[in-house]
Design a protein that fits this description.
about 400 residues; alpha+beta; 2 domains; eight-stranded antiparallel beta barrel; globular; disordered N terminus
Amino acid sequence: MEKKTTRSKIDWRQFLVSVLGTAIGVALTFIVSARLEHRNKEQARRLTAIMVIHDIDNTIDIVKNMKEEEERNGEFLRSIMAQRDQLEGMPYDTLNKALILLSDSNSDFRFDTSKEKIFNSDLDTWQNLGNMAFLDNVQAFYHYRQGFQDAMNQSTVYIHPIPDEEYMRIVMGTGWVTAEEYSATIRPFLNEKLHEDRVVYYINVSASRVQYANEVIDYWTALNNENKFLMGITEREMEDYVKNINKNGVPLTKSRLLGRWVLSVGDQTNEYDFHGDNSYDFEMDYSSSFIKTLHFSGKLKMKVSYGGEWAFQGDSLVMTPDYNSVDIKMDPSGMVPEENMQDSLDVWVNRTRESTVADFKEMAENGERRIIKARLDYSKDKMEWSESDGRVRYLNRKKE
């Protein structure tokens, strides 16, 4: 009997469909992965560009503030120069301010270079950005900013003309005297300095410092406008970036703000009491570091209080203090006078208070206000303040 052999038949159509489906699946996976990688690179590219553009904008704001301060100080010093032979009738606070503005603070000015370091240290930056004109602009900006910083710290146009050691010698040499006695001491010193070529030059080139600041601001502004155009960055994207820099936490609202908040920094405690009528009360308790002189030693305690008004401006808290309402109390109980030196201590305390009052009076005349980026943590009992100068502070809600 003949055996009939069986052979399994292969469904080639199904096989081909299966192979084709696998191939298409693999291809789709690669396409999707490539698109995701491209999108991630595009997002990283835009985020890097926005970070740098914001750094340039922030630097421009810093120079604008410096220019405005220079305009005020330059006008003040030119007024003093015009009256340098009639200093006899000038009050203590005016003379002291002139002396401080002309004296070397002995501290270098520094821009925040953290964003610059991130930009220059990321090797992928150059590949991801892909726009050589933008890269050239950024490198030119950072090079120019370093030169501007060096000029402020090294050029005679910017260095204050009275060396710090001379300032300290005249101040410490007067001892602890009344404001009137102190004024009598510094008047001849200031008169002499105001006739020196170096001091005259510094005051006369104030307009040059303002002009240079304007040139820097105009150049960097034009350059950054070009950067935004080259990279296709919109103002809306810049606003979103600024809002999301400190995205953690929750937005500040009126109901969440009201109440008393405490900020502690070293031996200083600041309390802000925000009210529903958009007013606030400020109170500061301060304890100085240990003071040691020939006449007394110890720590001086001081309490400062004043009122003000608050408002919201976008995600910022705008605080307008009323410095004319300031009240200052001195507590010298932690100071110990040497034998027969109580009068000297009393004079020094009064002079310190007068100087502090004069500082607040000057701020009141300038109409100062603070614009602070503010957010709360999720407990709503801690508030983060990001100030325009880059400082970040944390306040805690005070439980009643």
